[in-house]
Please model this.
Amino acid sequence: MLAQSDVQALARDIFDQHERREIFKAIPERIPTVDDAHDIQDAYVALLCAKFKTTVGGYKIALSSKQTRDWLGIHEPAAGQVLANRIHTSPHTVKVADYVRFSAELETCVVLDKDMAGPVTVEDVRRNLRSIHSSYELIEDRAADLTKLDAKSLASDNSWNAGIVIGPPAPLDLDLANRPGTLKVNGVLTERGTTAETIGGDPLAVVAWLAGHFGKRGQTIKAGYPIITGSIVKSQFYGAGNVLEFAMDGMPPVILNLV
Model:
């Protein structure tokens, strides 16, 4: 377990790398455990909140998709935090040049009606739903070498979250297990996937995992905070001039304009 001074030093180093727009470099040898990685993440997010005069307003689960885990060669999920000033509603415009390397992930967003900490079941989560949405996660991976990545380095860098975009709410009675979704780019269908790719084949199982993760750390999922539950396909690397329209089956679409 890292000393608090080491946690703070590593968090400051990650923050400064972002400020200098440096290429991401994995540092698993400097982070003994995944718990240490999430301690570093907490310290790094605190620095971001101070910079932008904001607070944490949502959560993400990285690597909940088997396809993504297999693609990157990592076999455990990781949590992340979404700054309140980075939560956007559809349609939203992103300036790609603001990123070292931009990508988007296609996800189901879940919002809970009451605070929740684990361990909990999928049915506990289902009973506590406030809303569900199609959504994007905005990713800043700083041009990482995706063949040399590990869960500890990823989690320390707040699992690369640069914001989320949320579509209109969908009917709450939709069964999210194994639900398909599609992406259109400039009106042309380019990707299909299903929530079968995520933990337990159900975004609600992903939320239950997050509640358990938080419970072990003495933390709580806050009511009203959007939770993005993992991409149903691999990250999408599109440049300026593209319009992305993503929808889970039975849900309103979420629109992202890249300029």
In short: The CA atoms of residues 80 and 159 lie 5 Å apart. Helices lie at 4-19, 34-52, 66-72, 122-127, 151-156, 203-216. The chain has one domain: 54-258. The first strand starts at residue 56 and ends at 62.
